[in-house]
Amino acid sequence: MQLTRSLKQAFLALAIAVMAAAALPATAQQIEEIDTIVAVVDDDIIMRSELDIAIKGIVDRIRAQGGNLPPQDLIEKQVLERLIVRKLQIQRAFRTGIRISDSDVDSAITNLAQQNGLSVTQMRQVVQADGEDWSEFRRSIGEEIMTERLRQRVVSSMDPISDTEVDIMLASEEFSGGEYHISHIVIVVPDGSTPREVEAVSNRINEVHQKLDEGMDFASAAISYSQGQEALEGGEVGWRDLNSVPREFADAIRNLRAGQYTVPIRSPAGFHIIRVNDYRDQVQVMSKEHHARHILIEVNELVTAREAMDRVSEIRQDIMDGADFAEEAKEHSDDPTSANIGGDMGWFPENQYGPRIEQALAGMEEGEVSEPFQTQVGWHIIQKLGFRETDVTEEARRIRARNSIMQSKADAEVETFLRQLREEAYVDIRLTS
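RESULT FIELD:
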């Protein structure tokens, strides 16, 4: 994120060029080229400065992770290809009516700041300290939201995952065998390729495999040569069970240990090499659950925080003096989902209702009523009715199976969509060596 710094450098270069030109005879003066077009993408362009900024971000991340840098020309080509596909997605999003509002961007930035333990003001200071213009940062976030919504639209047309599909996966040996953390290199075979073109791709993947055998780091090879979506992340795909990858992949990685990779594998999309980074067995899943009931006095335009605190304190005192908690909840609580059933929240997992309620329950004995406490919606008291640990392994396995099927289908849909988008587009690459 170095946009502002790059602009300053560009202006400085221009100033030096102008001063140097002034010292020469007028007939010899040359205007130094500051920026150039490196690609035309349908009705848009990618500038050299834009590519350089993106390359720096990738290089900085690879260095921070301790990875080996591939040759500059290979990084350049890979990053440019990613920018091209991003431009195409944004163009398609606009043509299909996807729009992003300022409030969408504000919400995304707020969430991003919270995930990093920052306020929005602190995040802005970090971004600007790194040399990036805040408006450019916001634009980038907006484009990311736009491309994500486009992908969601692509996968939304998929048929729902049926219970039968889930049952079949649960019954399979592959699903019960644990999960593999994998990375992936793919070189695509375009639709309609001739036998000679297929052979050329086969030769390329064999060359990559040879480089791996000779000691090239897998992540560096992925960054340099892979044409997959995750290429610039070192080819990292993440955790997958054998049922959520194509059969030819599952058969190839089944007996691999961490650090080993496959020989080149052919699929309808192209040629692949897959590396197993790690393996984990399935484990028993236990859910810690509370049973509680509560009373909420909401803070709104008619009730101040002070008034809400005073009211809930009075209700608690009445309960301590012998009033029935459930009756008090029915009469006074502002929680529409629980008031009519005496404030009963039922059994719920830890942290389901946020950290403040979890903190209140954590140190309480069964039957105890908490002191008044505040959340973002108002003031509460809560009574702990019970605590249990429940084996939810089967439920978790079923959820994981459904998510695994959905992820596999979504990945394939998006990969096909992006490949077609790229093949159908007019792209004129103007990189100079």
